[in-house]
Design goal:
63% helix; alpha+beta; 4-stranded antiparallel β-sheet; 189 residues; elongated; single chain
């Protein structure tokens, strides 16, 4: 009997690929694991995941790397290239969230990625706690700058053009934020 603990490896870790510092999942491996019989059906899932990725402001091409892989054809060992997609961790998670929830392995996949996300959050929080106040302040400034850019972009897309429009837009957001905070306070009582 060996002294090593017997760790159960997730099937999602088994199909994960590594290429130097980059980790990815092949969509063709993932679609089989999630219980999709036909690639064409899983392509629809990938398309929905790409929309979510774009909506969240992520680079679709960087997260969904289109590629091909060889497939054996015939009895003489011939090969033909077939389409595949290399999914980053984020893209894989978006694909799982977009998948058919009635498939049992989709539920397991959602649990796996939620657990991995929580582990990363805890690790990040521990690392953040070790930073100096000046380092934390720089991070907060960078986040605020990013949020302000997103707010300005959203305002522009909503038709806010003049300074007066912008003031009205911010006032409306502040009013809604106060209403939500008030509702949360009232519901806790």
């Amino acid at each position: 009997m060996d002294d090593q603990p017997n760790f159960v490896t997730s099937p999602f870790d088994v199909i994960r690929q590594e290429d130097g510092e980059r980790e990815f999942w092949r969509a063709r491996d993932l679609h089989k694991l999630l219980g999709y019989d036909r690639w064409e059906n899983f392509e629809k899932v990938i398309a929905k995941a790409k929309v979510a990725c774009k909506y969240n402001g992520r680079d679709v091409d960087a997260n969904f790397h289109e590629t091909t892989k060889p497939r054996r054809v015939g009895s003489k060992g011939g090969q033909t290239p077939i389409r595949d997609v290399e999914l980053t961790r984020y893209a894989c998670y978006m694909a799982v969230l977009s998948a058919d929830s009635s498939k049992p392995m989709v539920g397991h996949a959602k649990d796996y990625f939620a657990e991995q996300t929580r582990r990363q959050e805890l690790a990040d929080a521990e690392l953040f706690a070790q930073l100096s106040e000046d380092e934390k302040r720089l991070i907060y400034r960078a986040q605020l700058s990013l949020y302000n850019r997103k707010l300005a972009q959203t305002a522009h897309e909503a038709g806010v053009v003049t300074r007066s429009d912008h003031a009205d837009f911010l006032s409306m957001l502040a009013t809604r934020a106060c209403m939500v905070a008030s509702q949360k306070t009232t519901s806790r009582r």
